[in-house]
């Protein structure tokens, strides 16, 4: 029995030692791997390791690697398309070589073909390659000059010139206390690269294209502030001087003072609420002065309609300057002007020339969107009035950011007039919290039904002192 068991025992011993050896090898490799990870800072959340494993960012201290890769890929695509076009042209010439000798292509046509189909695409690809900014040889972290943000994103030269930092000529600090000026564009412009490059593609010093609708599209989609342009704005060829101030407030402007090419209507009479095809729907009767004259000065059957004289009576003599944030033709500012109160009106040309209408009435239009921080300093406005723009469609987080910006520019003791805000009944509590979270003093507060499911809310609230 011992002789029969001996080979099996030897095999068992060999297998046992082999398992022990392999187990030790696995442990050694595991320890070595863990040591390498620890040395690299993996367990300490080292920045480079985190970015490598979790793809936190494609930017390296201001240098956008993803944009660089996209630019190189874009140039290669251009070269591939040019090569395909030339090969296709040669193949077509080969197929029709029997008739090729009979063609009478002039030198001018041949020259035009070479310029448009060969030289221009090659030149464009060449320039695009030369414009790619690479990190400096010593490494970005050791460089005193940061790479220009977004530089490798855009191809149009005018955009690149705009976002390049402008050094002070005298070499000293400028009035802002900086060594250079960085012109800004909204980060959402990268998502609308094609539209922005179309907007900035012009001949310097010449007339701009009639493309205000393109710029407004960029603004509304978050590409704001837009870059400045070095072209001349077009105006109506038959522009007439505005009416005198006392006459302009309550009279429709001259039709010749507006560029109508991007509207459905071609005159102010067409914008009447009686015309179902006027091209806008947000403010009914805005271009009918007889109806506009009745707003905020005549009694209404709705409790949410406050009168200007009653609101001004809350702070006699203290309301001097204000902001009207909404959609309209400046009627609120016109009425306040009659009370010696200066009001700036926000406006977008949503289907009609609202900005031109406000200006031609002798009032001040502020061309801004909801995305933009208001260009006023802290604690400066006596009054903020809003109507017709903010209602139940707006996201609660967005309205929160907007209200905090309003609170920033409204001075202590200033009034916030929420005029005819409406929303679904089920959402009213959420919006009321947004309005009341700042602990403003209530001067006026009224609710009225708008429909079976919707409700109006109007309020006049006073900002507290908040002394520190």
Automatic annotation (TrEMBL):
Compartment annotation: Endomembrane system; Membrane
Report the main location listed first in the record.
membrane
Q: Which residues form a coiled coil?
A: 65-99
Keyword terms: Coiled coil, Glycoprotein, Membrane, Methyltransferase, Signal-anchor, Transferase, Transmembrane, Transmembrane helix
Going by the entry's taxonomy, the superkingdom of the source organism is recorded as Eukaryota
Q: Which InterPro entries does the UniProt record give? A: Prob_Methyltransferase, Put_SAM_MeTrfase, SAM-dependent_MTases_sf
Give the GO terms filed under biological process for this record: methylation
Topology in the lipid bilayer:
Single-pass membrane protein; Single-pass type II membrane protein
Q: Which Pfam families match?
A: Methyltransf_29 (PF03141)
What does UniProt give as GO cellular component? endomembrane system; membrane
Q: Where do transmembrane segments lie in this chain?
A: 20-44
* GO MF term (any one): methyltransferase activity
Family named by the database record = Belongs to the methyltransferase superfamily.
Looking up PANTHER family in the UniProt record yields: F22F7.17 PROTEIN, S-ADENOSYL-L-METHIONINE-DEPENDENT METHYLTRANSFERASE SUPERFAMILY PROTEIN-RELATED
The identity of this protein, by name, is: Methyltransferase type 11 domain-containing protein
